[in-house]
Amino acid sequence: MLIADLHIHSVYSDGKASPREIIRHALIRGINVISITDHDTFKGGLEGYRFSREIARNTSDTKILVVPGIELRSYSGDILVYCENDVELPREVGLLIDKAHENNCVVVPAHPFDTWRHGLGDVVYDYDGWDAIEVWNAHASRNANRRALEASRIMGKPGVANSDAHILEHVGSAYTYILIEDASSITEVLDALRKGLIKPHQGGLSLKDNIERVAWSIEYRARKILGD
Ligand SMILES: [Zn+2]
């Protein structure tokens, strides 16, 4: 069984840490699979993947696999897409799902009922092409997560739980068990997600985590304003 956190932001969007720092931190926390899913870019995920391959070549015991991903702002809301490579994706939901599947990617609506943070809301029910649904997001409200879990049950889709970490300390604050023994390739992880060989493990942010989260979002905005 593997532990996976499949929704993490790096410096390539609004995250604080580099892909290398995220990987180092995930290794320390005993996470086996991560996906770096920056807003509208695969850059962080691809850099992380290359770094994880480097680690695998140099050591035999410590292993971590990075699945390249993206949190794409579609016309209807945020969608997580996991791929083996950089894929140019359209922003119309139906076209996005088709293009992603043509390229063997896995498509998961991000925090669908957290409409404050661009969740799809009830639009999630309009499409049957989801491979899984993010049923637990450590940054979403309990009510939003409850409704996401309900959607996954109604639609018969597997559920994933993710941290949506923007700072290192939140990596792994929620995670998903992948029910396979070992993952040496991205394909194996994507297949397991498609087959629903996963089990979400809910987790949340402590008061301290939430204070750090707010502090970082203020700092990030200040950096942007100052062009830092
Ligand atoms: Zn996110």
Automatic annotation (TrEMBL):
NCBIfam families: CehA_McbA_metalo
Coiled-coil regions listed: none
UniProt name for this protein: PHP domain protein
Chain ranges of the Polymerase/histidinol phosphatase N-terminal domain: 4-76
GO molecular function, one term: 5'-3' RNA exonuclease activity
Superkingdom field: Archaea
Organism: Desulfurococcus amylolyticus DSM 16532
InterPro entries: PHP_dom, PHP_domain, Pol/His_phosphatase_N, Pol/histidinol_Pase-like
